[in-house]
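## Example record

The block below lists the input lines for one assembly entry, exactly as stored, with component labels intact.
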Amino acid sequence: MNTNMAVCIAVIAKENYPLYIRSVPTQNELKFHYTVHTSLDVVEEKISAVGKALGDQRELYLGLLYPTEDYKMFRKLHNSFTDVMCNPFHNPGDTIQSKAFDGIVSGMMVQTA
Amino acid sequence: MESLTLSDVEQKYYSDLFVYCDTDNTKKVASNGRVLDLFRAAQLPSEVVLQITELCGATRLGHFGRSQFYIALKLIAIAQSGLPLRVESLNSVKDLPLPRFVVGKNEAEARHAALYQDPDSQGLYPAPGTAVIPRPPGRGHQNKKGHPSSTSLPPEPTSPVVSPHQSPPTSPHSWRKHKRQHSGGNAERQPVVAATGAVWTQFREPQTGPVAGDGMWPSHSPPLPGQESWVSFTADTPPSSTLPAMHPSSVQESTTIRTVASAATTNEIQRQSSTYDDPWKITDEQRQYYINQFKTIQPDLTGFIPGSAAKEFFTKSKLPILELSHIWELSDFDKDGALTLDEFCAAFHLVVARKNGYDLPEKLPESLMPKLIDLDDSAEVPEQTADVGYSASPVEVTPNKSPSMPSLNQAWPEMNQSNEDTAIVHPVPIRMTPSKIHMQEMELKRTGSDHNHPTSPLLAKPPELSEEAKLPASMKFVAANTLSRHPFIPPQTSVPLTGHRVEAESIPGGAAVLTTTSPQQIPQQPNFADFSQFQAFAASEQPSSLPEVDKHIEPGQGAGPLRTVKSDGQADERPSATVNSVPKGSSGPLAPPPKPVRRRLKSEDELRPEDEQHGPQKSNVIAAVLATQPSIPRSVGKDKKAIQASIRRNKETNTVLARLNSELQQQLKDLLEERISLEVQLEQLRPFSHL
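Predicted structure tokens for the full assembly:
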């Protein structure tokens, strides 16, 4: 499971600001950030269209464009996200500073040697 | 190279020095400035230094590897003590003081002095020699202007916080003075302290660089909130814990010696990091302290501390939230948002270590991993945290399960917790004459009180295991105890082996079952073998029905409810059990068991005299039961083995279940993926109406 696919990973809070964002440094990050933001619209639409079926995880995932194996990535990300949230020392709304989370995200990003 | 055995203190000290000198972090130290400065600071004639370098092999290699460095340090110590430099003396010299290094750098001193004068460092060192365990607050808070959060930090670690640096600021004078002062008791410590003090001052300079210590510091020196306070940490905390001992005495310069037992703590700390190889090991005193702290938050040692309480507690340590967050991540092993005792100890230990200047590891060290000390952990049922407490108690309650009830007590609570729907065998109701019922009650009581009795087959089968393993075990027991009716392990084992429904409410506990069966079994041995009947019946309410059973039994000596226990079969049993358990069983399976057990014990005792008034049948049973009682002490040992066996079995079950769980998860994952792909296809086929 070492083929990474992500070039940019972002965690967006409810209020539409990023709690966490990281890209492969080589690319034009701004473009990524913009894409992330626009994809929020897709997500929003999907949520409103379908309602709460099967839990948010799947819903949100469908907002992404490429399923299947990326779903594993998403799930992993989501799991580590919940771990961060479970941390009592984490204030919701703070940027995510967890090293463990960073580690997992790095593991998912495209490996640039 | 010659083999070198170092004491723990030496090991630590040398390691710190090595790290300090290892500026390139390459694990070998060239004869660069630091090393040379260090050797110069040893105040030895240069030809001695040269000789040392040669002896340790650095000349040969061209650089100082770790072993060469250590040998060199040891030789320096030897030379400083006036002994001739011999390779053989490396290991033969006993009680060699640590090598001393004079603080040579003026600027370092000045800087350090400046640093130390800041109030933060002032408060660091607890009064020396007060071999009292320092108050917790002292530890970390000392650095922070003496914040007295008394409960937050364990006393032991505080001492490191204290002062090694205190001495450096005052420069060589102070520590020379210290040396003189302390030459008595802590001869070893003294030079260490002094040396470390000096060394630390040197370290101070490159504070932001690779600070000495365990190499852990470098990474963390600046990040924290008050540079100064961290500085003082790093300065004084030498994880090497060598410092503490001496410094307490030298602390006189330091103003606020808040923490009391610096000496004690330093000793503790030294001990705690005694094995350099495992700086994360928790000493017994520390663990005890942690356990006590745990109790202040959560009296039940097997319970959890919720995240919010833990947050408050650790926030008192004044560590930055980010670090506390990291510590939490490391120590909340099961990621359930709550801390078990082990997790709490690990977290506390990390906090302590951090306060003392150790860097936080990226991953949880082995020695801090929560161990499955009790079945609760292995059960790993976060949602049943409320029940965790209970699970422990039944275990404790029935420590001496008779061998025949292996794993019952311990496994049972967990089993019940996690497998409520698994089978706790229901006792099959049997027809019981009033007298029988009464007798059974007696039996039940008696057995209940009598944990040591060989297992009543009925009793304890952890729901899961009962089905397979337990049955044979219980059968064995039953067979063995046909007449004696050994008490079941009341609380948990509600596996009614015999098809008799002893208690109306289907008392899961064997007691009930026993009682019912006893009368019958006395005449008819084969009844014991009727486990198969029980297997089928799962009574998750059984645990909860235990208390009810008790209650029922006690008041109504079985008359009413027991009578209802006609052999109606499970159907009747279940409803009644549920009925009974519902009102009372809301408190999770685990909660009731321990209590009923105790009650049964009492009632059993009370009933015992009554028993003897019953008919011959009962008296037979009673006699049998009583006869078994003397065997209790004998069976304690067997109980332990039984318990261990049951533990093993439970663990096996756990692994099986875990495997099953993972397989199911995998299936679920696959299905979800399928679904996703199907939905995607659907989307593609549908016109993009949503766009």
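Chain A touches chain B at residues 45-46, 49, 58, 61-62, 67-68, 71-72, 75, 83-84, 86-91, 97-100, 103 (CB under 8 Å). The mean pLDDT of chain A is 67.
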